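BUG: 3D viewer hangs when loading the predicted structure for this chain

Environment: internal workstation, default settings.
Expected: structure renders.
Actual: progress bar stalls at 90%.

Input used:
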Amino acid sequence: MRTRLRSAPGAACALALLVALTACLAAAFPRAVDRYEDAGLRRALDQARPEQIGVELAATLPDLGLTQAQREDALRPGPLSRQYARALATVERPLVADRAQSAYGVRTTRDLPATDPWLPRPTGLPAQVSLVAQQGLADHADVRTGRLPRAADPVTAATAEVEAAVSAETAESLRIKVGSVIHVPGVERAPLAVRVTAIVTPRDPAGAYWSTQPLLRTPSLVRLPGPSSEADRYWLGALLLPSEAAPAMLGTTGSPWRYWQLAPAADALHAHDLEELRSTIASLESGPGLSRARAATDPLTNVNTDLDEVLASYGRLREGVQPLVAVAAFGTGAVAAVVLLMAGGLAADRRRTELALLRARGASLRGVAGRLLAETAVVALPAGAFGLAAALLALPGARAVPAIAAAATVTAVACAVLPLRAAAAHRVVRVHGGREDVVSVRPSRRRTVAELTLVVLGAGAVETLRRRGTSDSAGDQLAALAPVLVGVIAALVLVRLYPLPLRALARPAGRLRGILGHLSLARAGRTSASAVLPLLALLTALTSAAFGGSVLAGVREARDHAALLAVGADARIESTAPLPAALPDRVRRAPGVRDLAEASITYQARPDAGEQTVPMVGVDPGAYAALAGRTGLGAFGEGELRDPAAGKSAGGTGSAGETGSAGGTGSAGETGPGGETDPAGGTGSAGGTGSAGETGSAGETGSAGETGSAGETGAGTRQEVPLPALASPSTARTYGTRPFPVRLEDGTTVTVRIALVRDRTPAVTGADFLVVDRAGLSDAAARPTALLVTGDHLDAGALRSAAGESGHVRLRAEERAGYVDSPLQSGAERVYAAAVAAGAGYAVLALLLALLRTAPERIALLARLRTMGLTRAQGRRLLILESLPQAFLAAAGGALTGWATIRLLSPGVDLTTIALASTQPPPGETELHTDALSLAVPALSVLLLAVGVAVGQAWWSGRRGSVKELRAGDAR
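Structure tokens produced before the viewer hung:
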């Protein structure tokens, strides 16, 4: 064995490097998945409120059949502490309680009115307080003023006065000071006096100890149910009693309850335990866990938590991401397995003569296989262990068992390939083997059956993914294998079709004058039939790369599109009030701004004077049409939305006050061009006689000739020529194409007619909208409330500085970044990209191994041909032409297979979950689309690599000379 390793150190080192790299990647994959899934779970728990994720056990008053002393004893710290310890013991893994943030105590469930006159009364109602005796106040609060409360004597329901502490926020809002005394109503006794002895500040305000019941640290200004007014609010705060003073609550009307709140330890929860976590919580809420909790605390204990809803929301996000990551993992795994098989095949071919000689001398097949297994294991086992150790060190904080299993599988495959390939090749003792080129060898029946089986499996996987989709295929490994199976089927089909063009081209090439074409085709046809493995690796890698690249491109496009829908442009400045007139010029001067469109948005426009409101946008048709065309959100022609009255003349109501199209008097008193009058004989926007001759509310004629309510300038009804409007499909279905009036927020009414229907528009989102030419609106309604900015590399600081306090600035880039709100999404993207890159690397390695396998024979051929007069340039062309058929087959087949895979699987692949934040309403299902770069770049890379290797081989053989290559009997 030592002699063997010394004789081929290069091959041993190459095998060790391949096994170490593959084992490292295989072990790193499950650990990387564990890490980002755990990070996503912790983010989900952090985003939820502590009162949502906490598990609270609560029990009512002790049994009324007990004596008063027994009821008081039930609220004392001793019994509560013992029950708390037993309650902690009932919580089973994987749910782990954070003992530092968990607590227990007694609190009143009814708020107690405090009638002390010095307490604030915002609207005349007395303040109310909640009495809370929670254990561990000294460990979770710092005393700002005074001392912590205590109970010197045993407290009973008849105790007249107890001490308490309040948080600094409560003291500020309720004007409480150290020494203040608050009285709460008693039951068949005098009011209970609560003396404040300390004002405290929480050490961890966001921790579960303080935030599970936010009232402990932050008072609330409570609004009574009913119509909103200033006469129905009162302050509610918490008085923090020492735990020994809890029995005093029995003498009040507060109806005290005992509670034991268990805060989950987020760092101890893992995503791979999600189903067990949900089962444990369900058991605590209504199952065996609840029975154990009641046995540990009180028979009337109830368990309340919203942790199951938080976990369910995270689980839906995880189930949407997992199938896509599984697709990448299977693709890369398949290519890596093929490369390991090729490495073993290369070693078997290199030692074919040696193994045939051993068999001819009487070596048993088992003995030869065992010897090869030992030789390979000596190299592969340390390499696999090294790769595993590297993965464990590089990615800490995840499970080790899946990583060890993955690395062990890689090592076992690497050890077994060479013995099995050698055993299959030398099963029968032969001196000479037959031809094994792709033209002469015919597929066996077993191979045909195996290929048909793969076709059936591939068809089933594709149909499953198309029908159920990735979101419903969690745990279905066949659906995740669909892209890989499509690539495998394509490789098998291409291998069967490969001889046909070679046979068709061989005869015409033989009649050519040069020898390079005929010789290269003959050499390509002499390629070993085992070339199915390189082709399988290349096609699988190219298919996975095309599919993965399209997924990543689709994710980017989905986020860009969602951000564009939310903002409407590259940036948006909007206000509820009209924007300053100088703001557009300031924004245009900001760095990166190329153009902007002004829009006056009325969100409460009422068509037909009804109750239903529809957002109506007044725009400049030219700028807005350009914006809609650039963004692809409801593109239209500028003239389709232009106000026809403004098109007839320049006298419509505008910023300069020119005359209207009817030739009446404008806001400046100028006469319209030509002095024509409109068919109704009415005047322009400055007011003249309308069709009925009566004055409208702005001096114009109303639609019925009625007098306006105030007679103020600028309000009234527009001339009878309706404004063309762009509407959403639902709005168009509701109002049709007839002219109808729309009443705006400023009281004016404009008549519009729907002329265009578009699904979306940049200025507003939603299912209903109207867009009109703002030249047809009143001066007040036409003032812009939003600026839609277009540009490259916009400076957010400059835009916000230009806008100042006049409007809210939103950038498309910032909106896009907000769609990734979970490490589960970003982690899945990184793992997916790494898997695609690894698959591409293994494909390159497969191509190199395939060329390396035939390198000695090709170099010897060049040496022989050079003795016959072949030039170096002709040698380079020969090697290039010889490698092109397979490389072109792989490149074209990979691109075509990738395109077909995406087209076949796109109906079942929804990228919404991985692309957009779970808290964001998706704009629709995001399907997979073909990405041209993902198809073209890998295919062209294969061709360039094949040509480059051929040129390199020709150059290297020219440097070495022909003498050494022509020596007979030399080991190669």
